[in-house]
Amino acid sequence: MPFKIIDHTADVAIIAYGNSIEDLFESACLGWKFISLETQIENFELSKKFLFSSSSYEELLIELLNELNFQLYANKFVFLKINKLTLTKVDSSIQLNVEAAGQKYNPEIHTIKEEIKGVTFHQIKIENVNGIFQTKIVFDI
Amino acid sequence: MQVNDIKIEKINDNLWEIPKTAGMNVPGRIYASEKIISQLLNDEALKQVVNVAHLPGIQKYSLAMPDIHWGYGFPIGGVAATDFYDGVISPGGVGYDINCGVRLATTSLNKNEISKRIKTLVENLFKDIPTGVGASGAIKKLSGKEIKNILTNGAEWAVQNGFGNNEDLLFTEENGRLKDANPNSVSKRAIERGLDQAGTLGSGNHFLEIDFVEKIFDQEVAEIFGLFENQIVIQIHTGSRGLGYQICDDYLKLLVQSEKKFGFNLPDKQLACAPIQSDEGQDYLSAMKCAANFAWNNRQIIMHLAKKSFQKTFNISEVELNFQLLYDVSHNIAKIEEHIIDGELKKVCVHRKGATRAFSSQNKTLPEKYFDVGQPVLIPGDMGRYSFISVGTSKAMDETFGSSCHGAGRLQSRNQALKIAKGKNLIEELNKAGVTIQAKGMKTIAEEMPFAYKDVSDVVDVMHNSGISKKVAMLKPIGVIKG
Which domains does chain A have, with CATH numbers? Predict the structure, then answer.
C-alpha cells in the first residue's frame, strides 16, 4: 500500500510513501480517499484540473488534499485517481499541476466513511529516507 | 517526573507544571490527576502544551484542562490567553470546527413519563434533524443574502425566522452573536459549504442526546438552573459544519505563508498565527466570529426542531412541555475578554480549544438568573455512561481565564475502537445500558462507544476538586441520535 494508517487518539493520521515527490503526492491522495470514502462502482466520468503554487512541497500537498475535500463536499466530486501530476520549479516557487479523475457523488454507490474537517500542518515533513520519500499527515475528523 | 524530554513537576494532586525552558514564553500547567497524567505518557499532548507556550504574547501559563489529549497545534483541552495589543491569534487554537459547542434544554417531563415512548421519540428526532456527513435540508437552502445575515447576527436570525424565542438568546453565550463579524472576511468557498447546512447535526462525535437528571450535587444551584431529579433534558453537540472548516483552512494557509513576514519561528506549523492587531489577525478574528455565529444559529435551529419532535411525539402543547434553554456554551473559540493578570485588568484573546468558558458569579456577561451563582458549564460524557452540569467559580477566573473542561476526551483511537467493537452487537449493548440509539451507520456507533472514551467523572472531579468548576448535577443518557 502506498500509505499506512497510523494511530492518533482523536484524529486520523497516515504516512504516505513514494519513489518521488510526485509519487508521494499521489499516495497521499489515495490515503485521503481511503479514509473518506468507500465506492462500490468506480467509473472515471469526470475529470478536474487544479493548479497551485507555493514555496513549499508540504504546503502544496495540504492544499491539494484540502481541494479534494472541498470538491467532495461543495461540488459533490468524488476523487478516484490521479491522471496526471507534475511539480515544476518556477523561480523561487513550485507549481503543482494535477488532473484528477472521478465521478459525481451518489449516496447509493458512495459511502462516506469519515468526514475530514481539515488536513493539518501538524507534523507534516517530506523526507527522503533511504531513497523513499515519506511524510506523516494528520487529518482532523 | 520526566516524560520523554519534558520535565513535569507535581504542584498538588490535581495540578502539574512544566517549567519554562528555551523558547517557551511561559510555563505549562496541566490540571490532571495521577491517573490522567499516566494516560498522556505515550502521545504528543504534553509536547503540545510546551509548543503553545511559545506563542508570542501568551500570558501566565499554557494551560490544559483534564480532558487533555493529543490534537494538532494546540492539545485538545488547551487554553491560552494572549495580549490583545502585543499578542497573536492562532486558528490552531480554535480548530476546524469553530464554535463547536453544547447546548442543554430542560423540559417539564420526567423519566417515567417518556420511557414507553423513547423509541418513537428517537425515531422522530432522527427523522426531523438532518444528521451525518454533508447532511443538509433542515430548512430551505439559504440565499447568499440570508447566510450573510446569519454570519452577522448568529442565533438572532433563527429566532427572527421562527426557530425559537428571544429568551433563548439570553441563555446563549454572547447571546448567540459575536459582534463585529464581517462576512467580507469569509471566502466564497466557505459560504458555498454553509448554504445548505444550517440546522444540521453533522457526523463524528456530534450528537443529540436525551438524558434524565440522575443525581443532584448542589440543590440550590440546581434549582436556579431549573433542574430536578429524573427530569428529561436534551443536549445538542455540534458546530459550524463545513463553513467553519473552510474558514480555518483558508486562514491557516494564509498565516503559514505569513510566518516569515511576522518573523515567527514556532515549533509546529499548525500554530501559525498573526498579531491580533495586524490586518491578517483582524480578518481571521472577524471570519472566526462569522463561523461562531453560524454555529450558534445552527444549534438554535436544531433545538427548535427537537422541541417540535417532542411535542409531536407526546402530543403536548409548548406550555405543557416547558422546553427551556438552560445554556449554550462554545468549546472551540477565541474570545476577546478582560482578566486580572498580575493584579491588573488586561484585555486578552482567550483561545479555548476543547475547553469551556466557566465564568463565576457576579460576571456582567451572565444572564440575570445566573448572576448570583455563576455560569453553567456543560460537560458531555460518552453516550453510555453520564454527563455533568457544573458551575463556574472565582477560582476559574483567577487561574484558568475562566475556563474548564469540555468532555471526556478520547482514550482509544477510532481504529482501536473499531477493533474492539468487531463482532459485538453494539446497539444491543447500548440498549442493555438503557440507551436507545439511531445513527446513520454502525461505524460511527463503534467509534463512539463508551469504551473509546475516558470516564468523564474523572475529568469533572479534577475540575471540582481544584475548585475551578463545581458539580451541580449528573445526567444519564436514554436516547441518542448521531450522524
Answer: 3-140 (3.55.10.10)
Q: Is the ipTM of this structure higher than 0.90?
A: yes
SS3 B205: coil
Cell 493520521 -> residue: A13
Specify whether the CB–CB gap between A80 and A103 falls below 8 A: yes
Q: Over the stretch B100-113, which tens digit does the pLDDT of each residue have?
A: 999 999 999 999 99
Q: Which residue has the cell 437528571?
A: B213
Catalytic-residue membership of B406: yes
Distance CA B280, CA B250 (A): 12
Q: Which of A7, A63, A113 sits opposite B443 (nearest CB)?
A: A113
Question: Distance between CA B340 and CA B120 in Å, rounded?
Answer: 51
Give the three-class secondary structure for B63.
strand
Sequence-ordered strand ranges (E) for A19-140: 37-39, 46-54, 77-90, 93-104, 110-112, 118-119, 127-129, 132-140
Q: B181 and B286 in contact (C-beta within 8 Å)?
A: yes
Of B132, B193, B270, the CB nearest to A120: B270
B431 touches chain A (CB under 8 A): no
The span from the CA of B98 to the CA of B293, in Å, is 10
Residues 6+ apart with CB under 8 A from B238: B100, B101, B200, B201, B202, B206, B295, B298, B299, B302
Q: Report CA B214 to chain centroid distance, whole Å.
A: 22
Handedness of CA A18, A19, A23, A25 (dihedral sign): positive
- Per the structure block, which three cell numbers stand in for B314? 407526546
Report CB contact under 8 Å: A5, B415.
yes
**pLDDT tier for residue B133 given thresholds of 50, 70 and 90:** low
For residue A5, give every residue at least 6 positions away whose Cβ sits within 8 Å of its Cβ, in sequence order, or none.
Answer: A12, A13, A14, A31, A34, A35, B415
- CA-to-CA distance for B281 and B263, rounded, in angstroms? 15
| Cell matching residue B256 | 503559514
Cβ separation A10–B73 shorter than 8 A: no
Report which of B387, B409, B357 is spatially closest to residue B71, judged by C-alpha positions.
B409
Instruction: Compare all CA atoms of chain A with the CA of B92 and give the residue at the minimum distance.
Output: A120
Q: Which of B72, B253, B256 sits opposite A138 (nearest CB)?
A: B72
Cα A52 from chain centroid? 14
Query: Crossing angle for the helix pair B241-262 and A57-75, nearest 10 degrees?
Result: 160
Q: Tell me the shortest Cα–Cα distance from B107 to chain A, in angstroms.
A: 32
Delineate the domains of chain B, giving CATH numbers in brackets. 2-482 (3.90.1860.10)
Measured between CA atoms, the residue of chain A closest to residue B418 is: A7
Condensed to tens digits (0 to 9), the pLDDT of residues B395-435 reads: 999 999 999 999 998 888 888 899 999 988 999 999 999 99
Distance between CA atoms of residues B107 and B232, nearest Å = 6
Read off the pLDDT of residues B444-477 as tens digits, 9 standing for 90 and up. 899 999 999 999 999 999 999 999 999 999 999 9
